[in-house]
Amino acid sequence: MAPVGSQTRHTGRGMARANVNGIELYYECHGAGPALLLVPGLGADTRLFSGIVGALAAKCRVIVCDPRGGGRSDKPPGPYRIEQMASDTKELLEVLGIECADVVGYSMGGRIALSLALDHPTHVRQLVLAATSARTTPSRILSRRWLALEVLSRIPTPGDRQPRWAWECQRRASAAFDATARLGEITVPTLILHGQHDHITPLALAQELHAAIAGSTLVQVPGGHVSLVTRERRRFADELLTFVAR
């Protein structure tokens, strides 16, 4: 559990808010064992991983956090930067007294995880990059799925914790990030998980990660951008647990 002090404020069982870089970051802790940090993507929050946390917590100390601008974390005025969000997660680990963790980043969270591994490498024991890439493509594939996501993101829903402007701050930070030239600096064991029919982040970008990160493993799963946390969530959890146990 998090150390009790001025840096944390508990909000419920396993739930708390930590003071990092001048904001409060919401996080949850589940289970015991080796530290496993899960970072969700654009517009998502801790609920993205609700289907796998139970399986992971049986063998790991799982920490799930809402990046700045999302979920129950603070939403300061922008602009945001991926490197800034990575610094937030580094500070969170330090508040929790965790020197080094296995870090899992999904979509935009994968770019946060990449930045954490590049700029704060001593905090990352192993790296998992799920449905993500080191850069975004200059043009989007105008699939019906992508267009639907764009439309839905603009419709406020009851209980929605993320205002449109905060989503836009996250989106711009993600779009501006490009770590392609630095991927050779990553030396920690790296697992790349990606949907074979991902139209949001094309499989070719995952293959680009795999080619540039020495010794990395690429695992392709059926489905698209969210398949790892939906119909392939059991496979996702199994792959994570196998990787962590290495």
Question: Mind explaining what this structure looks like?
Answer:
By secondary structure, the protein is an alpha/beta fold. It has a single domain (8-244), classed as Alpha/Beta hydrolase fold, catalytic domain (Rossmann fold, 3-Layer(aba) Sandwich). It has seven helices and nine strands, in the order ββββαβαβαβααβαβα. It has helices at 53-57, 82-95, 108-119, 144-153, 164-176, 203-212, 233-244; strands at 8-12, 15-20, 23-30, 35-39, 61-65, 101-106, 124-130, 190-195, 217-221. Strands 1-2-3-5-4-6-7-8-9 form a nine-stranded mixed sheet, sandwiched between helices. A hairpin with a 2-residue loop joins β1 (8-12) and β2. α2 (82-95) packs across α3. The longest helix has 14 residues, at 82-95. The radius of gyration is 17 Å and the shape is globular. Mean pLDDT is 90; it is low at 1-6.
Question: What attributes characterize this protein structure?
Answer:
246 residues; alpha/beta; 9-stranded mixed beta sheet; disordered N terminus
- Pick out the low-confidence regions: 1-6
The secondary-structure class comes to alpha/beta
Q: Average pLDDT, to the nearest integer?
A: 90
**Rg from Cα:** 17 Å
**Beta strand count:** 9
Q: Which bin fits the share of residues in helices?
A: 25-40%
Q: Count helical runs.
A: 7
Query: What is the distance, rounded to the nearest whole angstrom, between the alpha carbons of the first and last residues?
Result: 24 Å
Integer tally of domains = 1
Write the CATH architecture name. Answer: 3-Layer(aba) Sandwich
Name the CATH class: Alpha Beta
Reported by name, the CATH topology is Rossmann fold
CATH superfamily: Alpha/Beta hydrolase fold, catalytic domain
**Strands side by side in the biggest sheet:** 1-2-3-5-4-6-7-8-9
